[in-house]
Amino acid sequence: MQNSTLNRTRVFDYENDPTYQLLSGLRKNCFTDNVTHSTVVGDTYNENDGWCPRVFDGFSCWDETPASTTAFQPCPEFIVGFDPRRFAYKKCTENGTWYVNPNNNKHWTNYTTCVDVEDLNFRTIINSIYVVGYSISVAALVLSIIIFLYFRSLLCTRIRIHIHLFSSFAISNILWIVWYRTVVDKVVVVQNNREWCQLLHIVTHYFMITSYLWMFCEALHLHIALVVVFVKDEVAMRWFIVLGWGISLIITMIYATVRYFTPGAIERCWMDHSDTIWIIVIPVGISLMVSFIFLINVVRVLLTKLHPTPNQQASMAAKKAARAALILIPLFGLHFILIPLRPLPESPGEKLYQVASALLTSLQGLCVAILFCFTNHDVMTATKTYMSRFRRANEAIAMTGVTGGESLMNTKDHVV
């Protein structure tokens, strides 16, 4: 029992806790190195009156302050949610002591001014849009995967690529939901910057990259099927898997390694902006541009070289797939095109941009499911056939029940 109690008291390792180390350093700077940023603004005072002593309140260092004045300093930047452009303040009372909060009888610093409540509420709404949008996309994607796997007659190279694309999107969206719920919404988690949240960031970005590279595989497959034609599906599928899952892993490893060794880029669960993100943005952007070129060429072939043939249905399926992909590629690329066009913070269009970006990003999976599954001719045909067979089977069971009931009645009449 005693050992159990000791183990519980040693769970929290203060010496290795980054927040504890940061605050300890600030306290040392306050009393040993005399580092403080507080100042008295606009108040008149008599130097012969009492002075409040230098104090470290747990977040900031407050210099000696004349009685009956108020000291100000920028809000601490290391606290998630605080705006360093705003100011916290601490009152020195008439008798030269710091103001005491009557509710808890402790010295009190006013940090409430550090939080922009309106902006905080808006960002909460944006995060909710992301979570709801990703949840809708996951539901649509999982349903699509079930449909593809259930109707075995649909399985071909194109549908297998769809399944990989849908799986990468579904996993990516689930991870983003986890990210928003366990990291973004948890200030303490971001502040502590534990290894698990950094790993979650890396894994989430890996599956985000796979989604775009499998979209590239969609375009590449259409290009190969209609232009190159002589490549075997089995060989092509192996290369697609290497490209979709393997190349994404290499890009992610390079990104994680470079960012890990970049000073200041691994704080706050890697949430802060870092130029290392271009390691992801550039290859993804290139894949989108090349995909668009492939698809334009596919459309050109469909319009100029394919004529009515006995395999008209296959030609029509290829046309619809190309049209769906042509819609999706600009849709996916629009998110990257909008990055340089992002309005400045607090500008009139900034909030509209945030809402549009949240909707566009979180509902990509739903768009994929609609265009590649729910409106797919083969899927619709297979579903109608299944429903027709299901209805006929139910009718047969019902008729059997009626006939059996009549036979039983006839038998009873005969016995009587």
UniProtKB/TrEMBL annotation:
GO terms for cellular component: plasma membrane. PROSITE patterns: G_PROTEIN_RECEP_F2_1 (PS00649), G_PROTEIN_RECEP_F2_3 (PS50227), G_PROTEIN_RECEP_F2_4 (PS50261). Residues 29-118, 126-376 form the G-protein coupled receptors family 2 profile domain. SUPFAM superfamilies: Family A G protein-coupled receptor-like, Hormone receptor domain. One of its GO terms (molecular function) is G protein-coupled peptide receptor activity. The keyword Nucleotide-binding does not apply. The chain crosses the membrane at residues 129-151, 163-180, 212-231, 238-257, 277-303, 324-341, 353-374. Keywords: Cell membrane, G-protein coupled receptor, Glycoprotein, Membrane, Receptor, Transducer, Transmembrane, Transmembrane helix. It comes from the Eukaryota. The keyword Membrane applies. It is found in: Cell membrane. It is a multi-pass membrane protein. Its main location: membrane. One of its GO terms (biological process) is adenylate cyclase-modulating G protein-coupled receptor signaling pathway. Gene3D superfamilies: GPCR, family 2, extracellular hormone receptor domain (4.10.1240.10), Rhodopsin 7-helix transmembrane proteins (1.20.1070.10). InterPro entries: GPCR_2, GPCR_2-like_7TM, GPCR_2_extracell_dom_sf, GPCR_2_extracellular_dom, GPCR_2_secretin-like, GPCR_2_secretin-like_CS. Belongs to the G-protein coupled receptor 2 family. This is Calcitonin receptor. It comes from Arctia plantaginis (Wood tiger moth). The lineage of its organism: Eukaryota, Metazoa, Ecdysozoa, Arthropoda, Hexapoda.
